Amino acid sequence: MKKIRACIVGATGYGGRETIKMFLRHPHVEIASVAADDSFIGTKISDSFQDLRGLVDLTCQKADTATLAQSCDVAMLGTPHGIAMKMAPVFLKAGVKVIDFSADFRIQNTKVFEAFYGMPQSAPDLLAKAVYGLPELNADEVKKADLLSNPGCFPTSVILGLAPLLKKGLTEPHAFSVSITGTSGAGRKAALSMLHAELEGTIRPYRIGKHQHTPEMEQELSALAGEKFTLNFVPELGGFSRGIISTLNIRLKAKKSVDELIDLYKQFYAGKRFIRVYDKGQYPELRNVIHTNFCDIGVYCEGTDCLIFSAIDNLLKGQAGQAVQNMNLMFGFDEAAGLP
């Protein structure tokens, strides 16, 4: 099979590094170019990430969309919010498939997007074209996509945790989530609040009531439930580098046993290679999912009160790993190709 050519924009971020590492072992992908912001132009990508030394010697280019589009089949856009909506139209016009790591095409309501991200949606005509890429739930749509909106890290954990219950119509239309994430979720920029000395040994709630992933989750959960669904979302920052574990509390319409719910989850995710549903009395731990593309799920209930535990690596299943999984489906490759 002929290799496809990939360009990675935002290559000096954590998601960019993970994407490069996966492409280096991918049997059907050639890295055509890496692009970054002006401060990295002309430097080797291995200067930014020493673990890539001797593996890839590509030089960071200017993120000029028209130039990059001439030599790639897929563009992996690991850019800050607001950039992909400007770049995607140029790539798409050139026949390049686009996978956007940012939130630019996730939220269908442009007013909601502007309220949470503080910027207008400059390419609203592309929203109908964008496919929300949770392959365990919509693989058929992903396979046909030219513009793929990669889900957020928190939404991946929460939506996969709740999807079986909502699709079966078993719950009330509201849930509560406490989701703890590692510091890499904030990106690679320097900030006093993100220093190890400030976070080691603690867990810090943040953006309570106004986290930008909330409308994304409510949009997708409502679609799964077939009715308006609300989420009380509490994001917390932990003193570790990577991983997300979500504890989801939801009320069932009727009593179910733990065994019944575990059977439901195992049947719902049967054949899904990156979902692992735990047996009764067993629950996910971060150490079992970091550096993997798995989402591990555990279930507990008493009467109609149900607890779901969902754990992922925020940089892989929550970002770059899921992006590569989606890319594989878009190009007809084995879904797990290149993934750890």
TrEMBL record:
<dbReference type="Pfam" id="PF01118">
    <property type="entry name" value="Semialdhyde_dh"/>
</dbReference>
<keyword id="KW-0055">Arginine biosynthesis</keyword>
<dbReference type="GO" id="GO:0051287">
    <property type="term" value="F:NAD binding"/>
</dbReference>
<comment type="function">
    <text>Catalyzes the NADPH-dependent reduction of N-acetyl-5-glutamyl phosphate to yield N-acetyl-L-glutamate 5-semialdehyde.</text>
</comment>
<dbReference type="InterPro" id="IPR050085">
    <property type="entry name" value="AGPR"/>
</dbReference>
<comment type="pathway">
    <text>Amino-acid biosynthesis; L-arginine biosynthesis; N(2)-acetyl-L-ornithine from L-glutamate: step 3/4.</text>
</comment>
<keyword id="KW-0963">Cytoplasm</keyword>
<dbReference type="InterPro" id="IPR036291">
    <property type="entry name" value="NAD(P)-bd_dom_sf"/>
</dbReference>
<comment type="similarity">
    <text>Belongs to the NAGSA dehydrogenase family. Type 1 subfamily.</text>
</comment>
<protein>
    <recommendedName>
        <fullName>N-acetyl-gamma-glutamyl-phosphate reductase</fullName>
        <ecNumber>1.2.1.38</ecNumber>
    </recommendedName>
</protein>
<feature type="active site">
    <location>
        <position position="153"/>
    </location>
</feature>
<dbReference type="GO" id="GO:0003942">
    <property type="term" value="F:N-acetyl-gamma-glutamyl-phosphate reductase activity"/>
</dbReference>
<feature type="domain" description="Semialdehyde dehydrogenase NAD-binding">
    <location>
        <begin position="5"/>
        <end position="145"/>
    </location>
</feature>
<dbReference type="Pfam" id="PF22698">
    <property type="entry name" value="Semialdhyde_dhC_1"/>
</dbReference>
<dbReference type="GO" id="GO:0070401">
    <property type="term" value="F:NADP+ binding"/>
</dbReference>
<dbReference type="GO" id="GO:0005737">
    <property type="term" value="C:cytoplasm"/>
</dbReference>
<dbReference type="InterPro" id="IPR000534">
    <property type="entry name" value="Semialdehyde_DH_NAD-bd"/>
</dbReference>
<keyword id="KW-0521">NADP</keyword>
<keyword id="KW-0560">Oxidoreductase</keyword>
<dbReference type="InterPro" id="IPR023013">
    <property type="entry name" value="AGPR_AS"/>
</dbReference>
<keyword id="KW-0028">Amino-acid biosynthesis</keyword>
<dbReference type="GO" id="GO:0006526">
    <property type="term" value="P:L-arginine biosynthetic process"/>
</dbReference>
<dbReference type="InterPro" id="IPR058924">
    <property type="entry name" value="AGPR_dimerisation_dom"/>
</dbReference>
<dbReference type="InterPro" id="IPR000706">
    <property type="entry name" value="AGPR_type-1"/>
</dbReference>
